[in-house]
Amino acid sequence: MPTLPQVLSQLQFITQETSLLGLFITASIILLWRDWRSLILALLIQYILIGIILSRLVRPDIATLKVMIGAFICPILFLSVRQVSAAESPFRSGESRIFRLFLARLDPRGAAATGFVFRLLAACLMILVATTLSASLLLPGLPPSVNTAVFWLIMAGLVTLSLTEEPLKAGLGLFTVFSGFELFYATVENSLLVTGLWGAVNLLMALAVGYLIVIHRAGPEAEL
Amino acid sequence: MISPALWLVILPLGSVPLVYLLRRLQAGRILAILVVLILAWLTLRLPTGQAFAFMGRPIGLDHLSQFTITLLFVSTAVLFLALFFSPPFMVRAVHSRIEEDRRIFYPMVLAILAFFVAGSLSSHIGITAIFIEAAAILTVFVIQGERPDSVRAALRFLILMSLATPLFLLAAWQVDLYQLSGGPGMARNLPQITFFIGFGFALWLAVIPFHSWLTTITAEGSPVPAAFVLIAFPAVAFSTLIHLLIELPWLVSSPQLVRAIVIAGVVTAGIGGGLAIAQRSFSDLMGYTALYDLGCMLALLGLGGREALPAVLAALSVRALALTLIAVGIALIRTHLVGDGLPLVRGLAWQNPLALISLMIGGLTLTGAPFTAGFAWRWQLVRSLAAFNAGWSVLLVLAGLGVAIGYLRGLRIALQMDGRNGESIRLPLSISILAGVLILLCIVVGFAPSLLIEPIQRLTLTIAIPIR
Fold it and tell me: How many angstroms separate the CA atoms of A106 and B6, rounded?
C-alpha cells in the first residue's frame, strides 16, 4: 500500500494552476447546478483539490485531515438527501408532475429571479471580482494562484448563500466559504487544538445541514 | 486534577445522555431543571481569578464570566420551568409540536450551555468563537424542533452565526501576531483586526442589516426556545465583546470605531422600534422588541464611561427577565388559540388575562417604560446619548415609543369584546405562579432598581470598559 508521501508525489502532475481551474469548475457547479448528486460530488472534488493545494503549503498530514473531514461531510449530506429523495414519490397525493411544475412557476418564491442565466452571470462576475481582488490584495505566504482560489471560493460561496433558501444549496455554499477560508487559515494557524476544533465544527455543521435537509424535504414547502 | 471551573462544562455535557434517554418522561425534564439549578449554585460558589492551562491554552473564571454564566443558568432554569409547567396546546397539530419541542429542548440546551461555558472560560477569541459556533450549530435543532413547515429561521441563524466564526479566527491570528511582535511593528494591521472583530460582532449581535436571524426565530419558532436563543446568544456575545475590550484596549483607541458602535446600536434600535409598530403578531413583536433592546445595549456599550459596564450587565439581566415573561405570555395564549396573531387575540383580556398582562409587562419592560425594570438603564442611556448627540437620543426615544405602540395595538384588540368573552380559560396554578413572580420582579425592580444594580456594581468594581 502506498504511503502518504508516495501518493502526494504521484499527484505532482496536478499543478496549483490546474487545481485553481478545478476549483473554478467545482464552485461554479455548486452555484449553478440543481441536481443534488452533482452538487455533492462537486463538493467532494473541491475538498480533494484543496487538500492537494494544502499538501504543498502545510504539513501533509494536516492537508490529509482536511480532505478526510470533507470526505466525511459529503456522505452525511448524501445520505440525508438520499433518505428524503427515496421517500418522495414523483406523483404524490394525486398531483401530477406537470401540475406541480405549473404551481412552482406560479409561486412567487420560485427560482425565476435566480434562474440559470442569472446565476451564470453572477458566477462570471464573481470570477472577475476574485481575480481583481487577488491582484490587489495579496494574502501573506500564499502563491498568486492560491490567493485567487481563496477569494474565488469565498465569493462563490457567499453568492450561493445569498441566492438560495434551500438547506442543501445553502449548506454547500457555507462549506465553500469555509473551504476558501481554510485554504488561507491552514497556512497561518499552526495550533492543532484550533485545527481539531474547527474540523469538529465542520462535521457538526454537516449534521445540522443534513437535519435541515430532511426536515425541509418532509415539509409542505418541498412539494412545490 | 480537574480544575473546578471545568465541572461547569463536564456536568451539563455528562447529563445530556441521561436527559435524552429520559426525554419522554417527566423525570428527564426534572433532572434537566435540577442540573441547571445546581450549575447556577456551583458557578456562584467557584473562586474567580484563578487561571490554569487546558491543552496548552489558558482558561479561567473571572467576575464577568461568572456573572454571564450564572445569568445563563438561571434564565435557562426559569425557561425550563416555564416549558415544564406550560399546559399542552389545545389544537392537535400544535399539541404534537410542543411535545417534540420539549423532548429536544432539554438535552440540547444542556449541551449548548456546556459549549457556552467552555467559550466563556477560554481567554482566546478564536477558541471562544469555535465553541460559540458549536453552540449555534446545536441551537439549530432547538429552533427547528422537528417542525416540518419551514426551515428558514434555523437556516438563517446557522448561516449568519457561522459566517462570523472565520472572522474571529482571523482576528485571533492577527491579535496573536500583534502581541507576539510587541505592538508597533504590526500597527498597520490594527484596522484589519478591528474590521474582523467589528464585522463578527455585527453578525452575532444582529446589527442591521444582519438582523434577519433574530426576527425570523421569534416569528417561526416556539416561544420558549426562541426566548432562550434571544437571551443566551446576546449575553455571551456581549460578555465576549467586553472581555475583548478589556484585554485589548487599543481596539477602541480610534474615536471613529467608538462612534461606529454607537451608530450601529442607534440604527438597530431605531429600525427595530420603527418596524415593531407594524407587526401583526405577538411573536413578531417579540423579535423586533428584542432587536430594539439589543441596539440600545450596543449604543450603551459604545458610549462607555464608568457606569457602562454595570448598566450593560443590568440590561442583560432585565432582558432575560422580560423575554422569559413574553415567552410565557405567548405560550399561555397558544394554550387556547392556534396562534398569537393580533386578529386572533380579540377578547383575550377576558379569556386569559394573565397571558395579556405577561405580554404587556414583558414588552413594556423591554421598551424601557417607567415603573418597569427596563427603565433605569434606558434612562441612563438616553441621558448619556443626549450628551453625545441629542438627535440620536430623540430617535431612540421615538423607537421605544414605536415598540410601546406595537404592544398597545395588541392591548386594544385584546380588550375588544367578542362572543367568547364569557369563557375564561383555567390555567394550571404552577404556570400562573411562575408568571406572577416574573411580573412582580419586573415591577419591583422598576420601583427599586438598586436591588439589581448594586450587586452588579459590587461585582464589577475592578472592571471597566476602556471607552471614555
Answer: 56
Q: What are the helix (H) ranges across A88-191?
A: 97-106, 116-136, 144-162, 167-188
Instruction: Kindly state the DSSP code that residue B425 receives in the 8-state scheme.
Output: P
- Over the stretch A151-174, which tens digit does the pLDDT of each residue have? 999 999 999 999 988 999 999 999
Q: Which three cell numbers stand for residue A63?
A: 492537508
Q: ipTM value of the model?
A: 0.90
Phi then psi for residue B424, to 5 deg, are -80, 140
Is A167 in CB contact (< 8 Å) with chain B? Answer: yes
Residues ≥6 apart with Cβ < 8 Å to A64: A4, A51, A55
Strand-pair partners of B60? B51
Hey, what amino acid is at A25?
I
The verdict on a CB contact (< 8 Å) between A215 and B148 is yes
- For residues A110 and A143, is the Cβ–Cβ distance under 8 A? no
Q: Cell match 502526494: residue?
A: A8
Rounded to the nearest 10 degrees, what angle do helices B212-220 and B282-303 cross at?
150
Q: Which residues pair with B57 in a beta bridge?
A: B54
Task: Provide the terminal-to-terminal Cα distance of chain B, rounded to the nearest Å.
Answer: 42
Which residues from chain B sit within 8 angstroms of residue A194, using beta carbons? 126-127, 130, 169
What's the CA gap between A69 and A53, in Å, rounded?
16
Nearest residue to B221 via CA among B155, B165, B168:
B155
**Amino acid type, A159:** V
Q: Would you say residue B281 has pLDDT above 60?
A: yes
Residue B381's contacts (CB-CB under 8 Å, 6 or more residues apart) are: B296, B299, B300, B303, B311, B396
**Minimal C-alpha gap between A3 and chain B (Å):** 30
pTM of the predicted structure, to 2 decimals: 0.91
